Amino acid sequence: YINHQNSSNANVRIAWPEDGVLNHKAAKLDVPLSEWNPEDKKSVLAFEYIAIRDIEPGEELFLDYGPDWEEAYTQHVQNWNPPDEYANYISATTWNQQYKRQDILKTPAELEMEPDPPSLQLRCHGGLTSAWGFKYHALKWDNDPDKYNPEYGHACQVLDRMEGDYGEITYDVLITEMMEDDDGEIIEYERRNVPRNCMKWFDKPESTDIHLPNAFRHSIGIPDDVFPDAWRSHMRVADPSSGRQDDDPSNQEPVCGMYIANSTISNSGLGMFTGFPIEAGDEVGNGDVAIMILELDWHNDKRQDDEDDESEYPDMTSNYVWDGRTFGFGNEVIGGIHTFWPGINAAVNFNPFLVNVDNEAMPEFDDAGMHRASHPGTGAFSPYHKGIPHAQRRIPIGGELFKDYGQDWFHERDQPYMPTLDDIQDAQYLLYDFFNKVGDQDGVYDLMIDIRNIWPSRLLNALPETYGEAAIAALGEIADVFQPNATREIEWLQEHGRCVDHIVPGVSTLPNAGRGAFTKRFIPKGTIISGSPLLHMSEDVLEMYDLVYSNSTGARKKPWSKSGYQLLLNYCFGHHESSLVLCPYGSGVNYINHNSTMANVKIQWAPHGVTGHNSSWLSMAPKDMMWIYKQSLALDYVATEDIQEGEELFLDYGPLWEMAWKEHLLTWKPKDRWSSYLSASTMNMLMGHNLLRTQAEQRDSPYPPNLMFQCDRATVPEIDYGTFAPINDIHPCIILERYEDGSGADDYVVRMEVKGEEEPEIHNLSRDAIKFYDRPYTSDLHLRSSFRHRIGFPEGMVPNEWRDSESSLFFANMEDLGAEGGAQRMQSDEL
């Protein structure tokens, strides 16, 4: 940001720092350029920027770029003569920001009257090139890493504009696509009823300012007294030495940004560790699929509302899930809902002294372009994923990641004196006061610790153990005292842990598969792509039944009326001869789809002791595992061939899974009424900031029956929550009136349905505070026709001790019949 001024006005100069500062290698200044190795990619030089006079706060900094630069710029200014057409230029970024992608696109007739800027090109989302399937579906540009790439999507032209029954505006478009083949064939096709947010303005190729032929270009000059004499020779560089590795990725070792290994907290199982330093505000991880678990207690005959009900069932997920209401999923069901969110959100631990990853990230809704009326895979995968968290403070390389589990976590586990985050913050202020007012008095500090041992409290327990540690914390923060013990050497993590950073999510290349797993970097054959611990449970825990609801006692299942399985089953491994299912919670692995012919990944048991794997469990009967609430099994995912960066990963789910999926495709038949289905997410995207109808207006022009309004009461300025403002205060609501406020915006009067309160009437509610939500049991998660099937373990991985189901006895009898029985068993497997 430092601009040029000549030497008389410059207030900054550059200089070489001392050797070692900022990785500066002073010896490099004495090496002629002809002896530099061009393949050495390390940064070995640095500048210091030094004030050459006193500089006041807010004063701009200037550097002398040198006489050559100044002469070149002066000449450029004198010769610069912009063409007339520059006066009307507008960039796509400015245009999109100006209209926020809510502008009305012009039809051909309207363009003849008022053309769009000639430098802009309208492009349609690349997802429109596949089967469009459903006229209201909206695609998000933000779901793809290439969202700002001008070549993403295809040029398109508006043919017509329509307004729908709910006030939404859609378009008929003509898409021009250049095929990726040697001929570069251009094809055109029409798509109907395309929403506005599927189209975006881009700059035409080579039309932006960086392509201006008359733009100024010149390097900044290094002062003569700074430029080394050794560099003033001719500028020829040496050829690279023979035998060095080239840029061929197969010659490079994969790097890793995240590991899973034993936690630094005793008796806390596994933890997540960073492979690189992470700065405050940086993204942490690659995101993962978030899987809803619906009313698990009710489907297992445990009544949440009855404190005297002592019925229990083995639920290994209980310590690895988040309250689904935290993420806004409470409207999916009437009863309890939990979110199983593998990766960081399931494997990370809680250390109140070292919380370094925020809880701000929420799973993003993305149905991958699938609709229940046209895609058999709808409802077979979770539409919620990603939600990448950020670092709250700097995490050193090898540092363990920690999230806040909430203030009640330790209280519920009979640890009442474990400090909360607020206690630690108060302790930090106490240390500042102590060293400011008491100073170098280690005896006084020791007395404080003695008092803590006699009268324990959460606040005093937040203080460092010794005076020396307290002094460190007072100069920085309490976390500095604990960080060294929460950091592991990278070599230790490589030996005792597993990398979980090789996989990133994306839209699968397979039809009806939703999202898939893609490699973040080149993976050589035989590499362990990821390691994943497993949650063990009985498959019948995931069974779902028709429920009988009661306002007073919750719900009871109808044991004779089984309705299906929890969605979680689709992400778990099992075997048809065993009641045991094993659900991975490692990072990224739940995105790996099935493909028996293109499989490039296989699974194998992790070595004993790695990622919590206990090989003795391979000889344990499932009934003996169920009530042990400790993760004790783990898988390694291994590359069976060289896998290029960005290539999709596939795993063979087994012949029974494949046969079940083919049967599902053959028998799947959508209901007629599904063709008009709109999810709340799609409706919110379509409506944008459009006006919402009042209750009276909806009598004549109703919204889809599966949708309802919810309002965020916390946005109302008249409501003062004081210090304890909730994150949200969202409740079902009815729109009573709509009116225009003084600024031209529309506000609403609503009646809210708040549990335990008289229905309050709220005035001055803005449009942003009102959203569409799916009514309970209406989203794709509840489709009874959705595919459900466990992922199959390879036959050789399933111990005989696990074969406890009735089918295992049947197959054992078949084997007693000899070869004929073996043939019958194979046929039974296929069936």
Task: Provide an overview of this structure.
α6 (421-437) crosses α9 (467-475). This protein has 831 residues and is an alpha+beta fold. The chain has 17 helices and 34 strands. The chain has a 6-stranded mixed β-sheet. The termini are far apart. β30 and β31 form a beta hairpin. Mean pLDDT is 81; it is low at 129-151, 234-247, 304-309, 718-727 and 807-831.
Keywords:
5-stranded antiparallel sheet, 22% strand
Count helical runs.
17
Class based on secondary structure composition and strand pairing:
alpha+beta
Indicate the low-confidence ranges by residue numbers. Answer: 129-151, 234-247, 304-309, 718-727, 807-831
Task: Please outline the major beta sheet.
Answer: 6 strands, mixed
How would you classify the quaternary structure? single chain
Rounded average pLDDT: 81
Indicate the proportion of strand residues: 15-25%
Described by the principal axes of the CA atoms, the overall outline is globular
Strands of the widest sheet, in order across it, are 26-27-20-24-23-34
Q: What is the CA–CA distance across the termini?
A: 69 Å
- List how many beta strands DSSP finds: 34
Helix-residue proportion: 10-25%
Write the layout of secondary structure elements.
Layout: E1 3-4, E2 12-15, E3 48-51, E4 62-63, H1 67-79, H2 92-99, H3 108-113, E5 120-124, E6 154-163, E7 169-178, E8 186-195, E9 199-203, E10 258-262, E11 270-274, E12 291-294, H4 296-299, E13 321-323, E14 337-340, H5 344-347, E15 364-365, E16 384-385, H6 421-437, H7 442-454, H8 458-461, H9 467-475, H10 479-482, H11 490-496, E17 498-499, E18 503-507, E19 515-519, E20 528-538, E21 543-550, E22 554-565, E23 573-574, E24 580-584, E25 593-594, E26 601-605, H12 622-625, E27 633-639, E28 650-651, H13 655-667, H14 680-687, H15 695-700, E29 707-712, E30 730-740, E31 746-752, E32 761-766, E33 770-774, E34 791-792, H16 806-816, H17 819-830
Parallel strand pairs: 1-4, 23-34, 25-28
Antiparallel strand pairs: 2-3, 5-6, 5-9, 6-7, 7-8, 10-11, 10-17, 12-14, 13-14, 15-16, 18-19, 20-24, 20-27, 21-22, 23-24, 26-27, 29-30, 29-33, 30-31, 31-32
Helix pairs in contact: 6-9, 16-17
